[in-house]
Design goal:
Elements: H1 39-42, E1 49-50, E2 55-56, H2 64-130, H3 133-160, H4 166-179
Antiparallel strand pairs: 1-2
Length: 187
């Protein structure tokens, strides 16, 4: 059943939508009389395309200066992000190293006092056995020299295990390939 006027073919009158309210492309009866030379004229203008850095009309070509400006802005953003990553990694590594060093210093101070008094006791015990406090002091000093060398070696090994900035170094190595368009080399 047809709602609008019928021209005898079962379809609506030319230029009339359902109920005689236009073609469906306009805003009502006023648009139904508009004539278009071709189909593309009836299509409303497209919304402007949004790029990452601005609005470009359909078919508009960006100037080289605008493209270079966008690239410069992207590089600036990339460098700021790399600096932020480096700062975060340095802070994390420094924090871990600082905590470890602080704990070792506290333990070292406590052990220092305990060992000081144990050393005095050993010195006097050896002096009593040897009947010579001078040589017993030398023996205790040599024992502590050996212990110091062992601890220094172990401490050096621990400091080698402090990690630097592995992610920053990895990302920084990838930047030249990305700039040259060889991002496939980064995988």
């Amino acid at each position: 059943m047809s709602v609008g006027p019928d021209n005898g073919t079962g379809s609506h009158a030319a230029g009339q939508g359902a109920g005689g309210y236009g073609s469906g492309y306009g805003n009502g009866p006023a648009d139904s009389n508009r004539q278009y030379e071709n189909v593309t004229d009836a299509i409303p203008p497209a919304e402007p395309l949004r790029s990452a850095h601005g609005t470009h009309e359909k078919g508009e070509v960006s100037s080289i200066g605008a493209i270079i400006g966008e690239i410069t802005e992207d590089m600036s953003t990339l460098m700021r992000q790399e600096v932020a990553l480096a700062k975060a990694e340095v802070q994390q590594s420094a924090s871990q190293a600082g905590k470890g060093a602080g704990m070792l210093a506290g333990a070292g101070a406590a052990v220092h006092y305990a060992l000081f008094f144990l050393s005095i006791a050993l010195w006097w015990a050896l002096g009593d056995l040897m009947d010579n406090l001078g040589w017993s002091a030398v023996i205790v000093a040599l024992i502590w020299g050996v212990i110091a060398a062992i601890l220094a070696s172990m401490g050096k090994g621990q400091l080698k295990n402090v990690k630097g900035m592995p992610r920053t170094v990895d990302t920084a190595k990838r930047v030249p390939d990305a700039l040259q368009g060889n991002e496939g080399n980064n995988r």
